[in-house]
Structures are given as structure tokens and as C-alpha cells.
Amino acid sequence: MENLSEMKILSTFEALVRDSILIYGPHEKIEKDYEGYPIEFRICPSLLKKPPTVGALLGASFNKGRKWGPGSDMYCPDERLILAKINNTHDFALNLFCVDKPQFILLTLDSYKRQHQTLDDDDFVAALEVLRHLDNIYIIFNCSENGGCSRVHKHMQGLRGPPKAFELFTQQSGNGASKVPFKYFMQRFSQALPNISASDVLNAYGRLLESSRGVLGLSQADDTCPHNVILWKDTMIVIPRRKGHFEQASANAAGMLGSVWVAERSTVEDWMRLGPRIVLQELGVPYSGL
């Protein structure tokens, strides 16, 4: 990734938007504070073209390119999307459906790896490599459908940070009642993540994941522990998840931290009707218990 500059990335991004390969368009922001929890709704009509759930099909125009490997449910309609290969384990690419300019995807070259599987050492090596070369990017991982994923080929995403509500998480413990409406587990490192070894991050992740299993009532025998991971600056946050959707409202890792992406204003109205804090408690684990 040494030769990958932000100018080069933006130039490629803009060219792919002009060529209608990459989907990015005008969007509206609605920012509010809900009982101390800030949320930014980003209404992006272009997301109507994005498959909303696992198994949903891409539009015919996106199926013109090759699949991202024989076991993949993702397509690569243009090789310019691929910005770099990392350690012969991951492709670092521009996301086909962007809410940020730019937005990244980091997906396994082994296209049979699945999104319900937990992160491993190769994943963290690749994620930390991205964080070393690009400032102001945070990494998210949505483990399983209940964690908010819509594609099963194992991948992480990179977005411009920080997430809207991030500071609330670092200002208090995740083990007691707080302005954060759901349980979470956090590791703050002594240095910025790019300076930490992947093995140390993996070990911390294992501890936080075990805590997540505990609040979800899962054992090691359970194959899947639905959860979200957020990597930003010197912090890793793991959020145990019960659901991917509550009625018409849904959220991935970014959404749980207050950066909610929707295709239509009606979805924001659904959040308002249900109550944002109630939605987040239903998607995660409320402090009052399961």
C-alpha cells in the first residue's frame, strides 16, 4: 500500500462514479441527540440499489463483472475497484455502494470465508495495515446477519471517522448503566492501533468476544456469536448483537455508534416511531438484560 495516496484514491473514486461503476450520490443528513445519545441519519437514495439483506440479488448492471472468487456473493464489475492486495490474504478495494467519499472494503482472498466467522490474525494484520497508511479511517466488522451484514463473503469496511457517538464509549465503562443504551466491551491500548501488533489486538478481541458470548448466553460450542467490531485510533469496541433488524429499522457497526445509513426518509420515520434508544436496545443487549 506504500504507493497508495489519498489523491490517487479520490481520482479513482471519481472516475468510477463518472462511469456509473461505483454508486455514490447526494445525501441528506439529520443530526439529533436522543437522551444524550447522538445519532446522524444519512439518507442516501443511491442505497436503494444495494442488496439490503443476505441473499438479495444485485441489479443486472452489477452482475456484468466477475464474482470476487468462486465462493463469493460479491461482484467486481471493474478491476479499478481494487486498490491494493495485502499480504496475499485480502483485497483492499473501494466499496461499490458508498455513503462516504471514499468508502472501503477489505475482503478475504479466500472467497469461501464467511461473515459469521470471527476475525483472525490475517484479518487484523490487514486492518492494521490500512490504518497505518490512511489517516482518519475507522474499521468496522459486522459478524453475521444479526450483526448487520448483507453479504456473506467475509469482509471489513473502512469509513471516515470517528463514528458519531464514539466519544460516549470512551468516556465511561461499558459495564454499567450509561448514556449508551446497550452493552458493549472495549479495549483501549497504550498506543494507537497501527503501532500495536496484530497478535496483541487478536488477543484483546478474544477476551471481548468471550464477554460478548457471556451476555448473549452462548457457549464455545455455538458456531456464531453475532457482534460488531469497531477499530478507531487506540480503541477496539465489540458490541454483542441480538438482531440485525427491529421492525423496519436496522443498523450495522457504524449504526450502533450513531452513524445510521438509510435509503429513504421513511426509514428515519420508522426509527422515530419506534424510538432510537429502543431500536438500539433491541438490536444489541440492553442493560436491563435479555
TrEMBL record:
Residues 78-158 form the Ap4A phosphorylase 1/2 N-terminal domain. InterPro entries: Ap4A_phos1/2, Ap4A_phos1/2-like, Ap4A_phos1/2_N, ATP_adenylylTrfase_C, HIT-like_sf. Signal peptide: none annotated. It comes from the Eukaryota. Residues 179-286 form the ATP adenylyltransferase C-terminal domain. One of its GO terms (biological process) is nucleotide metabolic process. GO terms for molecular function: ATP binding; ATP:ADP adenylyltransferase activity. This is ATP adenylyltransferase.
